Amino acid sequence: MDLLRNVEEVVTKEELLNMKGGLAYLGFEPLWPIHVGWLVWAYKLAELKEAGFDVVILVATWHAWVNDKGDISQLRAHGEKVIAVLDKIAKFRYVYGDEIAKDPRYWELVMRIAKETSLARIRRATPIMGRRAEEVELDFSKLLYPVMQVADIFYLGVDVAVGGMDQRRAHMLARDVAEKLGFKKPVAIHTPIITSLSGTGRMEGTHREIDEAYALFKMSKSKPQSAIFITDGEEGVRNKIWAAFCPPREIKFNPVFEIAAYLLIPYHGPLEVGGRRYDDKSALEKDYQAGVVTPQQLKEAVAASLVALLQKLK
């Protein structure tokens, strides 16, 4: 199995390819309903499990509480709903953030990590929360968030940390601190992020630069029209896709193309578009940029395939 398939970045590829199994991990804030962007990392975790990795998923209740997403009981209930969906993709092992937070060893790790990094570095890592730095300044607990995420990795004994590109700064912090504390350095696999259905406006820069700087232009539960949710019915999915930003011949920050390229083709393909069959995203990319595939054809194909995929997960 190609572990490098459908990833934005691996740090480092050599380390990953030399592994003979190990513990792969991802942490998520338990929110409901989840959007289809979550499925990209879920299927990557399933691939890692198939390749022989033990996969553990942290239901990050404490982190979500710090991030003002609800109280612990609400977040646990949301987590159970998310797990029910993930169980239809693969059977993973789960741990809860509020459970590991009961262990004094966890908080010892938090303090040891904090002593090995600077306030400036922590501030740079806070966009993983989907918040701008000035928001974090109003609530000191939010500065603990990236430190806790690194502590999660060391506490669980992670070999491979998985997440979207918006998690990159936390993962790089973990790799840097690992050397200082004598822990094993986790490999980081970063999956693509699907852009908000409304696009990114006039944002400039590469996809990586924007993803690393903010998690503000991806699908979001707080902006219902920005995302396709697992609970959306057929009519809702089709309406959202037809209204989505999808400029002709342009694939950069094009959410309809990204859904096809990062979710449907690799995990629910092949994709039939305008009478053509696409087994890999490069062929679709070439034809879309050449104008062979129109936005209308792409939207029609993506809507139909996405409806079918979501029906399997409900």
Structure description:
With 314 residues, the chain is α/β, with parallel strands linked by helices. Helices cover 49% and strands 11% of the residues. The chain has 15 helices and eight strands. A six-stranded mixed beta sheet has the order 1-6-5-2-3-4, with helices on both faces. α10 (168-181) links the parallel β5 and β6 (187-191). α13 (255-268) packs antiparallel against α14. The longest helix is centred in the last third of the chain and has 19 residues, at 295-313. The chain is globular. The protein starts with 8 loop residues before the first strand and ends with a helix. Mean pLDDT is 91; it is low at 210-214.
The unreliable regions are 210-214
Give the overall shape.
globular
Order of helices and strands: EHEHEHHEHHHHHEHEHHHEEHH
**Structure class:** alpha/beta
Count all strands and give the number. 8
Strand order in space, largest sheet = 1-6-5-2-3-4
Helix content: 40-55%
pLDDT averaged residue by residue: 91
Instruction: Output the number of helix runs.
Output: 15
Radius of gyration: 19 Å
The end-to-end distance, rounded to whole angstroms, is 27 Å
Strand content: 5-15%
Largest sheet: 6 strands, mixed
Briefly summarize what is shown:
By secondary structure, the protein is of the alpha/beta class. It has helices at 13-17, 37-50, 61-66, 72-86, 97-100, 104-115, 119-125, 133-136, 144-156, 168-181, 207-213, 234-243, 255-268, 281-290, 295-313; strands at residues 9-11, 23-28, 54-59, 93-96, 160-164, 187-191, 271-273, 276-278. β5, α10 (168-181) and β6 (187-191) form a beta-alpha-beta unit.
